[in-house]
Amino acid sequence: MKLSTQLYNAPHLKLDFYDIEKDAAEEASFTYDLNYAWAMNIDGAAHPLTIFEVKKKREAQLKKSDESKTEYYFAVRRNEGDKFIGVVAIPWVSWKNRHAGMRVLIGKVDGWKNYIAEALHMALRYVFEGLEIYSVEIFTGDFQPEMMDACRAAGMLECVRQREMVYRGGRLWDRVIMTMQQDKWLELHNED
C-alpha cells in the first residue's frame, strides 16, 4: 500500500483539532437538528444542547482521548475560510481486536449534504490507513438518509438492523449499523 494522499485533507474539507472555545458555540447550534444531537449521544435523548453542555462534553472526551488513546475527536472544517462544520468522532477503539466505532457529524450549513461523503471518506482513510484498524462501524438509520447513502457509496455494508430503536419525527425508525473492513477499503482505494 502506498500512501500518497494526506490523511487529514480532502478537496473541500480537512480534519483539524477541536477548539473548545471556538467550535463549541457553532456545534451547539447544530444540535437543534435532532439527527446531529442523536449522533452526539446515541444512547441518550436527542435534544438541543447549550454551549456550556457542548463544551463540557467535548472537554471530557478530549481529556479521555489524551489519556487513553482509545478515542479520537476531530473538527471538520472547510478548506476555504477554515469554517467549522462538524466533528469526526471515534468514540471507542478496541486495539486488541483492531475494531472501532465512528461517527461523522455535519451541521446543517450551506452544502452540508455534499460534505457528508467527503468527511466520511477522510474518517475512513484515517481509521484504516492512519490507525491501522481492521474494521469500523457506524450507527445510523433511515432517518439519516444522507448518511446511509454516503456509507453505501463508500462501500460500507449493513451488518445489523435493530428494529424500531430510534424515535424521530413522531415515529420509530430502525437503527442500522454499517460496517467496513480494511481489506475492502484498500481494495477500493489502493493507490499504485
Task: Write up this protein.
The protein is globular, with a radius of gyration of 16 Å. Strand 6 and strand 7 form a beta hairpin. The N and C termini lie close together (8 Å). It has a 7-stranded mixed beta sheet with strand order 1-2-3-4-5-7-6, sandwiched between helices. Helix content is 38%, strand content 31%. Helix 1 packs across helix 3 and helix 4 packs across helix 5. The protein has a domain of 124 residues: 3-Layer(aba) Sandwich (Aminopeptidase). It is built from 6 helices and 7 strands, in the order βαααβββαβαββα. It has 192 residues and is α+β, with helices and mostly antiparallel strands. The longest helix has 19 residues.
Strand tally: 7
Task: Briefly note the structural class of the backbone.
Answer: alpha+beta
Low-pLDDT ranges:
1-5
Query: What's the helix-strand series?
Result: EHHHEEEHEHEEH
Question: Which CATH class of the domain at 13-136 is shown?
Answer: Alpha Beta
Q: Sheet bearing the most strands, described?
A: 7 strands, mixed
Mind telling me which CATH architecture of the domain at 13-136 this is?
3-Layer(aba) Sandwich
Report strand order across the widest sheet: 1-2-3-4-5-7-6
Average pLDDT confidence is 91
Kindly provide the radius of gyration, computed on alpha-carbon positions and rounded to a whole number of angstroms.
16 Å
Helix content: 25-40%
Number of helices: 6
CATH topology heading of the domain at 13-136: Aminopeptidase
What's the N-to-C terminus distance? 8 Å
Q: Into which percentage range does the β-strand content fall?
A: 25-35%
> Can you tell me the overall shape?
globular
CATH homologous superfamily title of the domain at 13-136: Gcn5-related N-acetyltransferase (GNAT)
